[in-house]
Structure formats: structure tokens, C-alpha cells
Specification:
Elements: E1 33-34, H1 37-47, E2 51-55, H2 64-74, E3 78-82, H3 94-99, E4 104-108, E5 121-124, E6 127-128, H4 138-159, H5 163-168, H6 170-175, E7 184-189, H7 197-206, E8 211-212, E9 238-244, H8 249-258, E10 262-265, E11 272-274, H9 277-294, E12 299-305, H10 313-325, E13 329-335, H11 340-343, E14 350-353, H12 357-363, E15 371-372, H13 374-380
Helix pairs in contact: 9-13
The chain binds iron/sulfur cluster (SF4).
The site of iron/sulfur cluster has 13 residues, from loops.
Length: about 400
């Protein structure tokens, strides 16, 4: 899976929200990130904490020892680094740290989501002070606005499409789930660039766009925020998107979820590009192939994520019951980390993933057997139709 904090690294899991690595792979300028250590140390001193933990995404881990030195020098606390890969705010290590006697966890690069950590936690968003020029992205925005206007004018035709036609025209199959009511520009970003949104809103309005900063559900902490597994801010009035951030982890999910054109402006490099429709179409063709390959499967491994913000037990049980209804077998497999070495050897024909949704989307090629989402299983079993639109797997 594509990383958010290590954008150009090969798939290995999902790390959400941040993006401290420039998308061109150049070294990031850490001096321009705000790690908010002063506030953290004030809290440590005020509480007289003796043992604290840092949980840091991969792209920032090279800074960890320096931060640990600073905290141990400036306060009376000792610092433990939770050194396992950090997968976003869904991936809290609090139970383990509590057992170790840790009194406070500083969780960097992510914002709090709708799960209870069970102990004092400081979420630090690690903002970046880059302020890119709008000029390079304007041609993309103009082209995308025209696409949105055309889609809005023609959406009656798309609605009437048969399943076969929809599968031929994958993008329409995605986008037609929600007929547009307007063609506004949705302005979104990854966590460390969200502070730019109000100013960009005004600049884009001055440039002639009708701009909205979408507000999502409880899993999202801030207006305009997107996660790799949650795009709940999308609404029918948004015709196209501008994403402020680095890499294509969030853009892929947002376009898969909405079918709407998306331009990207990278605050690290100032570069602009668009999420290529060919790329999305390729992913959707792959998903269609995996659904077909799962149609004849008899034995399924149903993956349940053990990370607190990925655990979808009820969904996994529903998948098991649905398989039983169709005379098939589903085995519930609970894992903290999910990877080919950990599951490929089970004597099943395919896997259904209820953990981080991006594992099935971004990592599918790493597995020897089909790895599909719950929606895709429903399609494979004939419970749902592709013709009602491809449904991106979201965690609400
Ligand atoms: S479940 Fe969501 S927040 Fe967690 S790693 Fe996956 S995409 Fe990121």
C-alpha cells in the first residue's frame, strides 16, 4: 500500500494522514515542520510525568531519537519510542504502553479519530509551513470544472446505464452513485497542510471558483481533512477537488470514492498535477477482475484488523453469515499486521478484508489469492450490482 508519510515507498501497509516526504523523493525540510515539542514538554512538566511514549509515523521516525534526547534533557521524563510501524490514528498503542507503565502518549502526525485511547494522549498534527503558488494548478482546475459541468448536464444518461455499459465505463460507474447538484470546487488536504485551507479558499474564490471546504463525519477531526479510509465530507454539490498534499494515497481514495476529477498541489515542491483517470480506470479494472476471480471461490479467509480504529467485527460476522447463506465457508482471521507472508498459506481460495480498507485496494498485487473488500464480496455473490456504482470501502 502507498504510504502517506513515505509517499514513494513500495506498498507495505498503510500509514495515513501525513505526508512529510516530498512526492519527488527529495529530502524533506524538517526545520519547516512544527513538532510542538514545547507544548508537549509543558504538559509533561505540569503532570510531572516520569515515563512517556512517542508514536511516530515512518517518515518522521528519523527524528525520533533527537526528540527523545530533547524531552529527556528538558524534563524529568524518560521516553519510550513505540517503534512498530505506525498506521495512522486508527493504530493506537495505548494498551501496550499502559502495561509498560507509560503515563502519556504523544501521537505525532495524526489527528484524533472517533476511538477512545483510554489514557492521556497528545495528538500532534506536525504542520508544515509551505505555501505553494496557485498558478500551476489553475489549468487543471479549469479543465476539471468543465468536466464537472458536462457531467452535471449529462447525468441523466449515466443514470440510465445498464450494468454491462457501466462496467465498460468504469468512471461513470463510480461517479453516478451521487448525481451532482452543483459543480463546486472541494478544497481538501492532508493533516499537516490543513492550516492552509482558509487562505486557499479565499485565493481560489478570488480566482473565480466557487469553493467549499467539506466537513466530514466523526472519524475526521478538521474541515477539509481526508483519510485513506474516509471521505465522508464529499457531497453532491462538489464537482471536482483540489488536494493540498504530497503523493497520491489520499487522491486515489477520493477519486475512487467519488469518481470526481482531482487536482493536486504539493506544498513541499509547489508542483501541480492531476490524478490520472487512466490510473483510476486501471484500479477499477483490477477490482473487477478480482471480483470475478472470487465468484467461484468456496473458502474465504475473513480478515479482522486488531488495531482499535480498524476493527470491524460486526462487518466480518456479516460477511461470514452471507457466505454461509451462499453455501460457502468463511474463516475469521484476526491480525494486527496484515501481509502476504502472514495469510497466503491458509488453505482458502480468497480473502475478504475488513481491516484497513486500503490493504485490499493498494496491496492486492502482493497477494497470491484474490483479496477483496466487503462490497466486492457482495458483488461476487450477486447481493449487490456494479451497476449501482462501485462502492469504495470506508470506515465511518
Ligand atoms: S484504517 Fe484509515 S486511518 Fe487507518 S491506516 Fe487505514 S486508511 Fe489510514
Amino acid at each position: 500500500m502507498l504510504f502517506c508519510w513515505m509517499i514513494d515507498t513500495p506498498p507495505k501497509g498503510c500509514i495515513d494522514e501525513g505526508g512529510a516526504s516530498p512526492s519527488d523523493g527529495t529530502t524533506m525540510d524538517l526545520d519547516r515542520h512544527d513538532f510542538q515539542l514545547d507544548q508537549l514538554m509543558e504538559r509533561i512538566q505540569a503532570n510531572d510525568n516520569r515515563l512517556i511514549a512517542l508514536q511516530i509515523p515512518e517518515g518522521l521516525k528519523m527524528q525520533a531519537l533527537e526528540m527523545m534526547d530533547t524531552i529527556e534533557t528538558e524534563t524529568s521524563a524518560k521516553v519510550v519510542l513505540a517503534a512498530d510501524p505506525c498506521y495512522g490514528a486508527c493504530d493506537l498503542v495505548h494498551d501496550k504502553m499502559k502495561l509498560m507503565g507509560v503515563e502519556l502518549v504523544a501521537h505525532m502526525g495524526h489527528s484524533q479519530m472517533n476511538i477512545e485511547s483510554g489514557m492521556p494522549t497528545q495528538f500532534i498534527d506536525v504542520t508544515y509551513d509551505g505555501d505553494p503558488d496557485l498558478t500551476p494548478v489553475i489549468p487543471f482546475l479549469n479543465a476539471h470544472k468543465a468536466i464537472a459541468q458536462t457531467r452535471m448536464a449529462n447525468q441523466g444518461q449515466v443514470e440510465g446505464m445498464s450494468e454491462e455499459e457501466a462496467q465498460e465505463r468504469f468512471l461513470d460507474a463510480v461517479g453516478r452513485m451521487a448525481p451532482l447538484t452543483d459543480t463546486k470546487l472541494g478544497l481538501v488536504g492532508s493533516i499537516q497542510h490543513l492550516h492552509l485551507l482558509p487562505d486557499f479558499h479565499d485565493r481560489l474564490e478570488k480566482a473565480g471558483y466557487d469553493v467549499t471546504i467539506p466537513i466530514g463525519g466523526a472519524r475526521l477531526s478538521f474541515p477539509g481533512q481526508v483519510l485513506g479510509c474516509n471521505y465522508s465530507g464529499d457531497d453532491d454539490s462538489i464537482g471536482h477537488y483540489l488536494f493540498l498534499g504530497s503523493g497520491d494515497f489520499h487522491p486515489i481514495g477520493l477519486v475512487l470514492h467519488t469518481g470526481k476529477p482531482l487536482a493536486m498541489l504539493d506544498p513541499y515542491t509547489g508542483d501541480a498535477e492531476e490524478m490520472s483517470l487512466e490510473r483510476i480506470e486501471r484500479i477499477l479494472r483490477q477490482r473487477s477482475g478480482l471480483i470475478m476471480a472470487s465468484g467461484d471461490a468456496q473458502r474465504f479467509g475473513i480478515l479482522i484488523g486488531e488495531k482499535p480504529g480498524q476493527m470491524r467485527r460486526t462487518l466480518a460476522l456479516r460477511m461470514k453469515r452471507m457466505l454461509e447463506k451462499h453455501g460457502k465457508k468463511g474463516y475469521l482471521l484476526a491480525l494486527e499486521h496484515i501481509g502476504p507472508d502472514l495469510i497466503d498459506f491458509y488453505p482458502v481460495d480468497a480473502f475478504v478484508n475488513t481491516a484497513c480498507p486500503r490493504i485490499a485496494i493498494d496491496d492486492a498485487v502482493r497477494y497470491n489469492k484474490p483479496l477483496i473488500t466487503p462490497f466486492e464480496l457482495e458483488v461476487a455473490l450477486g447481493e449487490k450490482k456494479w451497476e449501482t456504482g462501485y462502492q469504495f470501502d470506508e470506515i465511518p
